[in-house]
Amino acid sequence: MNQLEICFSPELIHLHDLEGKIVVVVDIFRATSTMIAALANGIEEIQTFADLESCRSMREKGYLIAGERNGKTVEGFDLGNSPVAFLEEYYGGKKLAMTTTNGTLAISKSQSADEILIGAFPNFSATIRYIQAQQKDVLIHCAGWKGRFNLEDSLYAGALAKALESTHSSDDDGALSMKTLFEKEGHQLKQYLSKASHAKRLQNQGIEKDIDFCLTLDLYDLVGKVVNDRVRPISF
Amino acid sequence: MNQLEICFSPELIHLHDLEGKIVVVVDIFRATSTMIAALANGIEEIQTFADLESCRSMREKGYLIAGERNGKTVEGFDLGNSPVAFLEEYYGGKKLAMTTTNGTLAISKSQSADEILIGAFPNFSATIRYIQAQQKDVLIHCAGWKGRFNLEDSLYAGALAKALESTHSSDDDGALSMKTLFEKEGHQLKQYLSKASHAKRLQNQGIEKDIDFCLTLDLYDLVGKVVNDRVRPISF
């Protein structure tokens, strides 16, 4: 059996050894969900940036640029951070630059891993299948919220830990607790997560459709992987 | 309503503002449980030390010294880190110096709080009553295990968050998830925690009696509070 562990925040990732492992970076609301939506709708590669200006400068290189502040698309940007916006059009062959603070940090702090995947509910089963074909240890790296534990990322981690039980054991307390939480609340994920702090922030911004999308399982049969600092769809 | 939040590790405490709050430091297996056992059996104050030698030097000042390495009492020390050892004798008026790495760190990183309490199951209800008499915000600071999330401290935090629901609300994801976990597993705490990583380590050391003690509710009607870097029993 391979091993599985969960890290609840980029602020704790230095306590884990990533070498030889598949790290699944997860930022459910909404960075990694938006990435999967983008890849599923034709985007061929994504670069992430912590700040707006670096992201904006990618336009000169022919990238679509996506960024949001306070719930609104940044002036002059093509898209915000909404995953459902990517569903309205097909972006075949286009490249995307997007800003995300928590997500970018989690990806950059996962560099010593053997492979980095992008975790989201809309491609949940595809990610499971990919991982089970690799036979490597797994660490789920929750992007969290400004360094703190957050519920949606941690519950995804619990769901993944549970789905991988037949191939990946765990003596990690984080995995044990989140598997239990997912067993109890997984059947009413949206209802439970509506109590979570970040979902409340999102609801205040009126983006209910994004929340629904981010919590929908298995819309897409693709895996997002970080290759040379870019997120790409991979076939396997 | 006052607010309540949970911090899962001393490595994350810098993300929280402690000012004006009651911080409850918790290291269930076994530092804070041992402190409560010691206070309940006559010890009038406890100083904690991260290293053995500083602890040993307190003997000259008339302190009892308690320390353990690899499951055994350190040579020349009066006691180990076992809470049940304190139940065998009455230590009226004595002072205690003890070593604990995770616990000492959590206490020292809580200094900016208005009050620091010592959390343990054997004085659970007394701590609840004390907190509810103060009308302050609460942060539960889990000592964790080498910086990582651990199950027993987090479940205690969930139990406390749940017991304080009538006076302390929370929009903190950590509190929400641990309350849920305690609702699901609280009725079989020992059985559930036997799967946890640190409980497994302790079981390997043959200290089943310590585990039982650490998970027993309301043996004592006292509160442990840190005053001038010393843990003391307080009346209220």
From TrEMBL, chains A, B:
Keywords: Hydrolase, Magnesium. Signal peptide: none annotated. InterPro entries: ComB-like, ComB-like_sf. It holds the Pfam family 2-ph_phosp. It catalyses: (2R)-O-phospho-3-sulfolactate + H2O = (2R)-3-sulfolactate + phosphate. It is an enzyme of class 3 (hydrolase). The keyword Hydrolase applies. Gene3D superfamilies: ComB-like. Its cofactor is Mg(2+). SUPFAM superfamilies: ComB-like. The keyword Kinase does not apply. GO terms for molecular function: 2-phosphosulfolactate phosphatase activity; magnesium ion binding; sulfopyruvate decarboxylase activity. Its EC number is 3.1.3.71. Belongs to the ComB family. This is Probable 2-phosphosulfolactate phosphatase. It comes from Algoriphagus kandeliae.
